[in-house]
Amino acid sequence: MSNESTLPNKVIDLKSIGGGKFSSIVKNAQFEAIHVMIQAGGSLPPHQAQGSAIVQCLSGKGSFIIGEESQELTPGAWLYMSPKTMHAVEAEETLTLLVIKILSDQ
After folding, report:
1. 20-105 falls under which CATH superfamily?
2. DSSP conformation letters of 44-92
3. CA–CA dist 33, 27 (Å, integer)
4. Which of 9, 22, 52, 61 is most buried, most CB within 10 Å of its CB?
5. Distance CA 13, CA 104 (A)
């Protein structure tokens, strides 16, 4: 599953993606890339992914919470997460994240 703007071998501008909270950029049997936007004061409640995931903060400021540990998200912050890790996200400022879910781990 990919949309016209994310065909293989084409450079795209992530700022032009989506408009909703979650916008799938591309998905195949190995991975899914998702553009996530959380408005200031918003959050994603605790949840888990079946496979590994990579999260990169593109803009904004917030917290990535695993268990009792809260880690700061600012532009350039990057996180590798093990499969089935319960986590949550809180946005102090509007957060834009790039999430890569590793589907072959599932």
Report:
1. Jelly Rolls (2.60.120.10)
2. EEEE--SS-EEEEEEES-EEEEETTEEEEE-TT-EEEE-TT--EEEEES
3. 6
4. 52
5. 26
**Domain limits, the chain:** 20-105
Please work out, in degrees rounded to the nearest 5, the angle formed at the alpha carbon of residue 69 by the alpha carbons of 66 and 70.
90
- Average pLDDT of the residues in 96-101: 95
- Using left for φ > 0, alpha for ψ between -120 and 50, and beta otherwise, residue 19 falls in left
- Are 2 and 71 spatial neighbours (Cβ–Cβ below 8 Å)? no
* 31 touches 54 (CB < 8 A): no
Q: CA end-to-end span of the chain, whole Å?
A: 18
pLDDT, tens digit (0-9, with 9 covering 90-100), for 71-96:
999 999 999 999 999 999 999 999 99
Instruction: State how far Cα 87 lies from the chain centre.
Output: 12
